[in-house]
Amino acid sequence: MNTTNPKQNRVLAIAPDTRGVGFAVLEGENTLADWGVKTVAGDKNSGSVAKVEQLITDYDPEVLVLQDVESKDSRRSLRIRELSRILTALASSRNLKVARFPWIRVQKTMFAEGWGTKQQIAEIVAKIFPEELGFRLPPKRRLWESQDYRMSMFDAVALALTFRLRGKKAPADPPATV
Amino acid sequence: MASSQLPNYLRANRKRLALSQKEVAFLLGAESGAKVCRYERFAREPSLRTALAYEVIFQRPARELFGGLHKALEKQVAARARSLGKRVNRESSKARHSRKRESISALAALAGCKPLNQE
After folding, report:
1. pLDDT at B14
2. Chain A nearest-CA residue for B58
3. How do beta strands A63-67 and A97-101 pair?
4. A33 and B CB contact within 8 Å
5. CB of A53 within 8 Å of any CB in chain B?
6. Residue A86 domain-assigned (yes or no)
7. What is the chain B residue with the closest CA to A11?
8. Would the N or C end of chain A have less CB density within 10 A of its end CB?
9. Is A123 exposed, middle or buried (0-12, 13-18, 19+ CB in 10 A)?
10. Hey, is the C-beta of A43 within 8 angstroms of any chain B C-beta?
11. Domains of chain B, earliest start first
């Protein structure tokens, strides 16, 4: 973990998926203060909102970063869209700024050529935070497999980095495609 | 608003080493992971022995592990040093007190405050 700059603000990035939410708390330019996956049983949306509310209470972030699921290119489910709206309302009620990025923006931030797979993004994120995330990188998904549960955590870190690196160059070269 | 450091970074360091709260509790000599959970959620401050044990486990200095707490204490000490400095200045201006005034002034300047002699 890198040294924290106390002048920099703290951001909480949330990446919902079918099991719950992946989250990342990024402090300053390069300090990952917390990260993980919160799985939810039962009502996914209300459970996810409760988990995010707890994260906001614990970490008191200044910005909530979400994927922009309202854009016309987004293929996220109705439930996720609804959850995104609820989280936005929650952020407003807690006086948090909300930053939303379409996935294409995350790809443009991560890759010089502006395109890459989720797996490649996860590999870049693991390279940026090798101590924290290197050993949690999921294996490459095979066609008949569903997405690894850890991927939402990497998505959340990628969203947080997109917020931090907005207007800057791609952080690393994309890994070689096999 | 949140722009200061978190009181501690115990959770991030534990996750970095892929340890569970129960495992850290065992290393600390605690009975269960509940205490570790309270430290990580900033609900309880660890004792000096525990803080030093954390330093050993995570191989990082306590001032880094407890970044926010360290900053807060630094500010408090600096504020106290400023009032102590004013008191010392009032009480005596003898040369033998110049060393003391220098030390107190350096402490008062810790948290980004102006040194006493620049006021």
Report:
1. 96
2. A1
3. parallel
4. yes
5. no
6. yes
7. B2
8. C
9. buried
10. no
11. 10-65 (1.10.260.40), 70-118 (no CATH)
